Amino acid sequence: MAARTSLFKAALARPGGPALGTWVKLPAMESVELMALAGFDFVVIDLEHSALSIESAAQQIGVALLAGVSPIVRIPALDGGVVQRVLDAGAEGIMLPHVDTVAQARAAAAAVRFPPRGTRGVGSTSRAGAWGALPREEYLRFGQEEVVLIAQIESAAAARSAGEIAAVEGVDALLIGAADLSTSEGRTETDPEIVDLIAAAVRDTVAAGVPIGNAGGATAAAVRASAEAGYRFTLMSNDASLLGAAAAAAVSAGRTVHDEEPRKDTP
């Protein structure tokens, strides 16, 4: 069986614009399939801000891998048991919200890696181990070398420590959570102080040699702005909002059509 490589890391390494992803919030396997067919590089299955269960996430991970799109799972908080179950379900990475300190980053990195680098348990009869068909050595190698940990920067303290958090061994990428960061300071995302704080966090992360991403809009202008700001990957909206926007656009277009003649009543 050929060695598996990370689709997420491959997307980051590809020349050109930033890697493109989207959040998945709907408990439907078809959501992931549709995002893959659309051409996204990765999806972030969101267990923090949705009603998705681990079982739903496991099914979506399987669809993602078969469809050729990288499955990352955002967990609501650091829980070693949840990390282990999600990774053994085949996720290519974990996204952890509210990583504010180096100590928190180290704890997260330990939960994601096998000993001696961390504390993750061995479960090679899961999907991550091809249900036992994958050699144990390859299962362990993928977990140590290919799985990614993405730490979310969502406070002023985290932003000021972004370079140090990025430098923690086992942290593979950062994601700026501008909405939480600005809200925690009682400001808006466009406030000059917040803009400067985020720009400094991006600069320090890039200087540490670690990719950083953001959550942006579903437009070329939004992606261009992300690339110009130094982001290597960006999340374009989410499955629910994309569906809603497409539905609203369809109805809006339909409402522009009017009968040329009054309709005749039928008996």
Structure description:
With 267 residues, the protein is α/β, with parallel strands linked by helices. It has a single domain (7-243), classed as TIM Barrel (Alpha-Beta Barrel). The protein has twelve helices and eight strands. The chain has an eight-stranded parallel beta barrel with strand order 1-2-3-4-5-6-7-8, surrounded by eight helices. Strand 2 (42-46), helix 3 and strand 3 (70-74) form a beta-alpha-beta unit. Helix 2 (29-38) packs parallel to helix 3 (54-67). The longest helix is centred in the last third of the chain and has 16 residues, at 192-207. The chain is globular. The model has no long low-confidence stretch (mean pLDDT 96). Pfam families: HpcH_HpaI. It comes from Herbiconiux oxytropis. This is Aldolase/citrate lyase family protein. Belongs to the HpcH/HpaI aldolase family.
